[in-house]
Amino acid sequence: MRITVGQLVVRFLEYLGVDTLFGMPGAHILPVYDALHDSRVRSILVKHEQGAAFMAAGLARVSGGVGACITTAGPGASNLATGIAHAYADRLPVIAITAEAPTPIFGRGGLQESSGEGGSINQTALFSGITRYHKLIERTDYLATVLNQAVRHLLLDEVGPVVLSIPVNLQREMVDAEILDALPDVRRLHRPETAPATVVACATLLERARRPLVLAGYGCTQSREAREALQALSDRLKIPVATSLKGKGALDERSSLALGSTGVTSLGYARHYLEREADLVLMLGAGYNERTSYMWHQGLLEGKTIIQVDRNSSQLEKVYRADLAIQADLGCFLPALAVACRSLPPKDAPDLAAFKARCDVEAKARGECVFDARFDRVKAFFGLLEGQHEEGMILIDDNILFAQNWFRTRPQDLYIPNTGASSLGHAIPAAIGARLKTGKPVIAILGDGGFQMCCMEIMTAVNYQIPLNILLFNNQTLGLIRKNQYQQFEGRFLDCDFVNPDFALLAAAFGIQHFRIADEADGETLFRRIDLRSGINLIEFILDRDAYPNYVTHR
């Protein structure tokens, strides 16, 4: 059967399991858009292509499947760059379909051309460092090979974004639909099996340890099997668990064995336990990055047995030498390890509540508390939020600082911090993509600076009636910049303060609900009035711009 390349692209998206496509049409991509008319793939018109990439990433993160976005040539494609970089940093399977000018005019100065010929923009070079695979497709005879490569980079070990750029004349050419028959059967792709010897070796080291500590990372949040096995292992052996920021939620944080997350913006319990108590660290899907390592603090791992388990071989021993390094999928490895450790006696873990209390007293005595009393309203708000909705919530957090410390995730919750590329303007579009794959309330958390980079996408949620909650911290400044200029540059403030719009009027213009929190009582009133499950809600939380968290981000 002969079909157009545009139709083949849409069928390829269906093959990948894509049911929603975020993007913005342009003249050079219309043949693909026309093919969408006869497809089960739903298209969502965004306000900016960067938002389309963030939405696709949010959908992929929540669903575990492939997120997809589509743009026209030239600026349509280049506007994707930050969102694609985000997906690359977070290893998310996102496919972007972009257009290109017709091949006969390559190098002649065609409108929006980005072939790299004749001095035109080189789109291949633009995306080469932020994709697992990028291809400008100039002929149809190797389409099968291109699509096969795209599948492998989207669904196998080195997962990440893929960008396929297709000239408009090629989109109209006829090809055999049977090209798709040669692609791998995605239903038969499976996780690598865990070698029994590695499980035994890990269990043996755990048995010998007096006070082991688990450092759970992003890899532990990727499957229900991994989270349940980690909880069982911790409960059975009385092993405390700290998480990386991206690993937050790998363990029920209401557990008496939860130490919270690591990093300079955290309350410090995980760091102090690691330094003072732990003799073995079991790192599970956690990269030893700047945040997790406290800026690669030299003495943090000295004198300890280190076990590292990660699906991605490039993460193993990237920064430090492990006593045991295992490449394995944690969804398979952790259940096997939990079984292997069933006969081991529980460890003599200290009273973590008392340990945390001592840490707080010591931090106050040294003047090292991250937050002072001016942040008590924020703490109280997250305490109230934590008790909402037994079915769970999804928090997509660009602010990071507050929810990291004061929102205790439950097994039914999902916490998605804006790490990796850490780009402002991510939370709202990512939350829109996420909400399309869940019935749970989704909350985008961000500051007023980031809000003004992406607030136009609220109208996308309005247009498609996508429920959304936005928690906006209003302190009329770029908080991190102002804090650093105050703490490190003697208060020489420059380009951090600004005037905000009236957010109540802005919400009214969007046709959404607005709530304002200026004191603790407002938070209590909010949760009696608001419906987080339906509608679009803008929650404006007033902060003092001169209230600075006490931490250092760079040495």
Description:
The protein is an alpha/beta fold. The chain folds into three domains: 2-188, Rossmann fold, CATH 3.40.50; 196-355, TPP-binding domain (Rossmann fold, 3-Layer(aba) Sandwich); 370-542, Thiamin diphosphate (ThDP)-binding fold, Pyr/PP domains (Rossmann fold), CATH 3.40.50. The chain contains 21 helices and 20 strands. Helix 3 (49-63) packs parallel to helix 5 (81-89) and helix 3 (49-63) packs across helix 16 (427-435). The termini are far apart.
Compact summary:
This protein is α/β, with parallel strands linked by helices and 555 residues long.
What distinguishing features does this structure have?
555 residues, alpha/beta, Rossmann fold, 3 domains, six-stranded parallel β-sheet, 17% strand
The total of beta strands comes to 20
Counting H and I runs of at least 4 residues, what is the number of helices?
21
Give the DSSP E fraction (strand runs of 2 or more residues). 15-25%
Estimated structural class: alpha/beta
Q: How confident is the prediction overall: mean pLDDT? A: 91
Low-confidence stretches: none
CATH class of the largest domain: Alpha Beta
Helical fraction:
25-40%
What is the fold-level CATH name, i.e. the topology of the largest domain? Answer: Rossmann fold
Gyration radius, to the nearest Å? 25 Å
Judging from the principal axes of the Cα atoms, what is the shape? globular
Largest sheet: 6 strands, parallel
Head-to-tail CA distance between termini: 63 Å
CATH superfamily of the largest domain: Thiamin diphosphate (ThDP)-binding fold, Pyr/PP domains
CATH-level-2 architecture of the largest domain: 3-Layer(aba) Sandwich
Strand order of the largest sheet: 3-2-4-5-7-6
Number of structurally distinct domains: 3
